[in-house]
Records
---
Amino acid sequence: MPMHPRTSTLDGAIGLATQNRTLLPRYREMKLHWQIGSKDVARVKALVAGQAGSALIRARQRHNLAQTKPAVTKERFWRAMVSMRLTTRQKSGPESHVARFIRLNPFPLTYPTVHQARDAGVLIVKVLKKAGGIRFADKIATELAQNLEILEDGLWTDTLVQCNRLTQLVPRDIEIEVARHIQEHFLGFGPKQSRNLLQSLGLTRYEIPIDSRLTDWLNEFGFPVRLTATALGDDNYYRFISDGIQALCERSGVLPCIFDAAVFASRDSVAWTDDNVIF
């Protein structure tokens, strides 16, 4: 039997929540238990074992599971922000236009370069359009330029302090707090992309970006709630689904960042290698 949450009113609550998201916080008032069977665990373990040789999993083990991580600087944070903003609603597999842009060396949109530009938005859109194959260049450039302005207007200190809370191994609730800081302050970074940014910096073990690859796998797996990108844009709904993923991973003895890497690697037709990993 596929995993499912057990409460007397959960089905009704989920139905109401999809119609009125303001009701979503109520699920935390119920005694919710995710019932996960041995077959569910076996499928997760088989997935991870099948991708054990993936460079993506090796990268997560090396960076996200490290006892200590490099300090997050303005330069590192900005590059991650640019890179992960590019992945929204775009193909980001190993040989995609986005992945190739993110791997450029030298990187054309470093913090010093954009910071010193007379008009950050004009520079960003020019670089993105010149690279070719990147959708929504104008929107991305506008949002990144505004995010830079927000940082320069006084948010750098708090943002770096928040991110550097994760340079040591911390509980999940701290990861959630840092992700929420990014969600609340930066354009283009909702529940998924805030976690994408932190994961790409090697900072998180538990909080993962629930993207289309993961939702497709979970829907096929038999996850008890049909997942859609629209609903996952709501923070409370995202947390509810994330709680189920956390329970599945914990029961399977797999950290979520490794589970995410295994799903990601299994869905890409071109293999990730040590040279092309970007997440």
---
Amino acid sequence: MAKTKQLTVPCENRPGTLAFVAKALGDMKVNGVNFLTTTSGAEGSGQLLVDTANKAKQALEGPGLSYSEADVLRVAPRTPLHARS
């Protein structure tokens, strides 16, 4: 199992917030491997696994988005999702 960084971005639960984060990452050519969002009332967060954590951090810092980071294990499924029926 490979270690990777998970970036957690706190954000408001309102239309357009996820698109704003995704655009910041896309503008820096950061590929999202996994993206999980959660909300509670007016607040939420996104947990991101990306191909290049350093570029992702720069992409988030550019528009002033805060984040925290944690070391996590990246586990690949035995059968790729696109091959399952």
---
Amino acid sequence: MAEEDKATEDKAETADKADDPTAPHRLFCFGMGYSALVLARRLRDEGWVVAGTCRREEKRRELTDEGFEMFLFNRDQPLEAPETAFQGITHVLSSVPPDTGEPVLDHHRDHLLKLDALQWIGYLSTTGVYGDTGGATVDESNQLNPMTERARRRILAEKRWLALRHQNGLPVHIFRLAGIYGPHRSVLDRVKNGTAQRIYKPGHKFSRIHVEDIATVLQASMAKPRGGAVYNVCDSQPATPAQVTAYACKLMGMKLPPLVLFKEAEKNMTDMAKSFWRDNRKVDNSRLKFELGVNLDYPNYKKGLEAVMEAEKADANASEK
């Protein structure tokens, strides 16, 4: 038993501290989606080799044209040649959501254990694992209290990823993300198409995180890895959806939609939408600030929406040229 403990300890030390400045950094992203792609493009532009997965051939070709090494992967389609895909990998990010299990680990746990140059693993989870606190503030030390099946699955997935740290010494980090927004994925879209609502539910606030700030946090963790760490990734100003919608309307010079009581709005909500309103909590982000030294570029929804608007204008101008 002592020899096994020593082996695990040695592997943890190697994984956490391996940093050969002459060797190229190689990131592998399971799930090259909205958040992961922002990070991938940053690191590619800094000289990293970046590979990842997607589910459709059309997307694979599109991202290959951007300079990424792309592979098809989903629950029913594990990587065809994982040894080739993982060759030289130093960093791994997974944004693949759990289903009835954990697709990445169900198929490729053993392959990850064989990576001998691994310095960092990140798993993107959700602040939904904290459940409803009645508006009280939570940090990473709070007991988890999932209110939905999705959140329960996330907790099980977190435990499986962290087991790779505790049992095998891999440098796993968990990032609990608040509601993600950014260019072409924000309340501005709903204001434009006329579907935005101002729903009134007194005292009910949500945390958010701009997609660029997610990438900033992940890069900071890569530069300062601490295997087993868990971080809340959210802005510093929880706000009601009605406040956010009102500011989006102001930015766009649009008329405010009427204020609707939650009990009335709920009648026309999908089950998914209702589940988001079930939890009421504030999320503390102090750890990412003090431990990782992160200063968010968009610490509140106003700065974030202003940046989204500018980015979308720039995209529109670029497409016209």
---
Amino acid sequence: MLWAFQYYPDAEEFRGWFAGAKLNKWIDKSFSGGRLQDLASSTSYENIRQRLTKAIAGPSFWRTSGCLFIVDDLEVRGERIALPMSSNGKLADGVVGASDFVSPPLLGMAELVYENEEWYEI
């Protein structure tokens, strides 16, 4: 599953930049241009925002493996990576990522999990 967020410093918010077909179908909302707080569940929003902010502030590469998220009572395991992006080649102002997992029936909102989290300064 591919995804990317762009950071808007004036508004101090992340907005969806692009998402793969699987994520677009799952969230059932327009990802591109959507505000993170509208795309994420209320229980996951702050954790996601903190990690995206850390990725651009470092800038840092981020990786997790193991349990990625929980949908209903189903624990979904796999691997997630995220890298900072820059529109001007100097300052990080976005994050692109990918998640690899065996797809469950995508029936509800996911609670993201950050098992075996690793950060690497770039």
